[in-house]
């Protein structure tokens, strides 16, 4: 099947982000096919369409923010025009060299991935394929030798504290690698943002004001490191010193996390380290070492919840507390995830200690989704307080 010959720049041809939830599977597939034909023609979608079905999608190019109510202005006029170059390769070269078009495409693909579970695909297989194709196109930008560092998104967070000060954290949200679309830790998700803000507003609610000096804090599945970095800047304002370890399993995520730590550590008294951690085999040396554990939006399957439970049981000190925040999604294949987390910590026999205590949920609370924060399919967040208790 040949690539389309009617080339338009992505800003003029991609379906607007605000319409993705109602876009047909065919519309999404065609858009992804056209993008791959432009940016990575050696790897085209495996789904075969009739030649007449492949073409440039004519659509309004308005780009919606996370809020969906705030629409960023359409592309300038020079980016709205139809390319009149007759030679196909010249047309492709012109589009590929256009930094605006590349940036627009990256934002559109990232939005598509974040909204994939709201789009009415005919099957989960089609949905997963669309996510894989979108991630692959993103990877073509991050892997390109001409790629600029500014293709990643720098986000500045400011969380107010009870004292009136603000905790500022700068995070680099890197493009997804495409090699493994489970490396979602390259980007900051709603749960970590909501939880970081809540910790700053009410540190006593989480027992942060009662931490022993030099206490060990471990974040599981830390991703960009937002929660660990927020803690690293918050604790000194409480005149507390702690050793914070931000952990993750994906090497690309760890490298991005280390970069974020280096960006934010200036003037910070807390020690923050980024370490590789496999939940299935946590190091024996860390047994019972953590006075406090944190994890945000890290459970996407029942087995994840079981691994997380057993890892937490290995790491958590006898008097420690584990704060777990799980995203509640209203539909899609992750709809019942909070229940899997709750089930894992109810089936606690595998965590029973010699003194008879088990790791169990001590309290749970529903947190509301904040406007403009998180994905469109996020309904809210379930906060679990977990600790050692008699069965």
Automatic annotation (TrEMBL):
Gene Ontology MF terms in the entry = S-adenosylmethionine-dependent methyltransferase activity
Query: Transmembrane region positions?
Result: none
Q: InterPro entries attached here?
A: Methyltransf_16, SAM-dependent_MTases_sf
Superkingdom, taxonomy of origin: Eukaryota
Protein's name in the database? S-adenosylmethionine-dependent methyltransferase
């Amino acid at each position: 099947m040949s690539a389309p010959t009617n080339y338009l720049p992505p800003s003029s041809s991609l379906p607007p982000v605000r319409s993705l939830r109602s876009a047909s599977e065919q519309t999404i597939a065609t858009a992804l096919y056209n993008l791959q034909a432009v940016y990575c023609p050696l790897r085209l979608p495996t789904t075969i369409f009739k030649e007449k079905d492949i073409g440039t999608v004519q659509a309004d190019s308005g780009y919606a923010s996370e809020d969906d109510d705030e629409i960023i202005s359409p592309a300038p006029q020079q980016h709205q025009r139809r390319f009149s170059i007759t030679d196909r390769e010249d047309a492709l070269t012109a589009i590929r060299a256009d930094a605006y078009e590349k940036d627009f495409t990256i934002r559109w693909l990232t939005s598509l991935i974040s909204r994939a579970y709201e789009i009415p695909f005919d099957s989960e297989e089609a949905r997963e394929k669309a996510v894989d194709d979108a991630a692959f196109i993103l990877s073509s930008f991050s892997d390109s030798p001409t790629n600029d560092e500014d293709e990643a998104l720098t986000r500045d967070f400011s969380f107010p504290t009870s004292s009136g000060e603000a905790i500022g954290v700068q995070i680099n949200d890197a493009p997804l690698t495409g090699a493994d679309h489970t490396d979602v830790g390259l980007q900051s998700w709603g749960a970590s943002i909501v939880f970081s803000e809540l910790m700053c507003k009410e540190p006593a609610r989480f027992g942060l004001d009662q931490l022993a000096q030099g206490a060990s804090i471990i974040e599981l599945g830390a991703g960009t490191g937002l929660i660990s970095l927020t803690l690293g800047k918050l604790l000194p304002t409480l005149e507390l010193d702690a050793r914070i370890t931000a952990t993750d399993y994906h090497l690309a995520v760890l490298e991005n996390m280390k970069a974020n730590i280096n960006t934010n550590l200036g003037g910070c008294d807390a020690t923050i380290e980024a370490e590789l951690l496999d939940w299935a085999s946590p190091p024996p040396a860390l047994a019972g070492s953590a006075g406090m554990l944190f994890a945000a939006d890290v459970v996407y399957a029942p087995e994840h919840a079981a691994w997380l439970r057993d890892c937490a049981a290995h790491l958590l000190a006898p008097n420690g507390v584990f704060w777990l925040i799980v995203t509640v999604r209203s539909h899609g294949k992750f709809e019942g995830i909070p229940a899997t987390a709750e089930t894992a910590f109810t089936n606690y026999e595998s965590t029973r200690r010699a003194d008879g205590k088990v790791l169990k949920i001590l309290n749970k609370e529903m947190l509301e989704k904040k406007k403009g924060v998180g994905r469109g399919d996020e309904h809210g967040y379930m906060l679990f307080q977990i600790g050692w208790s008699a069965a």
